[in-house]
Hints:
The protein has a domain at 21-64.
Amino acid sequence: MKNPLKFIQEVKQxxxxxxxxxxxxxxxxxxxxxxxxxxxxxFFLILDQILRFLLNLILTINFSL
Length: 65
């Protein structure tokens, strides 16, 4: 096991090497997530409506026979 003081020094050195995203990168990433989540929500809404229509169609045909 390493010396705790040496470990803390290494952690501090690694912390200085971190490159944080810029404000522009963060905003672009957030907008991309929002856009893709919106597209997925619309896709599943349309898919749900189509499947609901088909299921109702099948059930009404089944009951009329």
